[in-house]
Amino acid sequence: MEQLVSPKKLVDQAYAAILDAICDGTLKPGARLTQHSVAARLRVSRQPIHNALLVLKAQGFVQETGRRGLAVVPLDPKLFAAIYEFRSAVEPLAVRLAVARLTPEAIVRGRALIKAGKAKAKGKNARARIQADMDFHFFIYELADNSLILETMRLNWQHLRRAMGEVLRSGELSNRVWPEHEAVLEAMIEGRAERASTLMREHVVRAYQDVASALSAPDKRPSRSA
Question: Which of 65, 126, 165, 195 could lock onto 71 through a cystine, CB 3.0 to 4.6 A?
């Protein structure tokens, strides 16, 4: 985590910095967090750190550890299963809603996202791969024009980022994702809403299988004390 220099509110900055460190693996599951240590690292007072940690605790990223304060929550396979169950229902709906709002400008943007995603899939930057994946899905959420879908998935994707790094570490899996995204988009462009919706659901189900497999690896299983 780097020193905060942006003019944004310090609480928002602190929240974003800590969340990014958790999601990209800089702060490992079980890592202890104290207001003093985080404030010193980010070079701010304890108050914005206190408020940021309260939000992260409410959202399930950190938890109480008795007298030791707070710690990063271990990866929970049940949470990811719940998120993907939700996604398998909501994302096909988002696709159907988006088809009706697909303008020529949106088509250009969607195809540009596909092109950029394929290029990033060939690289070694896991964070860029994850961001490209998120960008495509948020393109659909935004087109759907449903605030509940957008805001709910905004939080869910922060949890998903923690597991996606393991999944997209495999170039083979990352390369498979983009033809699936492209198939969804092209069905949308053709006006085949139900076909695009079905393709999205299949994509989400396969993504969950990848995540479940990554989380079941011996070094990713939660400890008995988690």
Answer: 65
CA dist 90 and 120 (Å) reads 26
pLDDT over threshold 60, residue 216: yes
Residue from 44, 46, 45 nearest 35 by CA: 46
Q: How is domain 10-72 classified at the CATH fold level?
A: Arc Repressor Mutant, subunit A (1.10.10)
CA distance 100 to 98: 5
**Most confident among 1-10, 162-171, 195-204 (mean pLDDT):** 195-204
**Which of 132, 123, 122 lies closest to 181 in space, CA to CA?**
132
Domain positions in the chain are: 10-72, 77-219
Distance CA 75, CA 215 (A): 8
Asked if 86 and 57 touch (Cβ cutoff 8 Å), the reply is: no
Q: Look up the CATH number of domain 77-219.
A: 1.20.120.530
User: How confident is the model over 104-125, as pLDDT tens digits?
Assistant: 999 999 999 999 999 998 888 8
Domains 10-72 and 77-219 share a fold: no
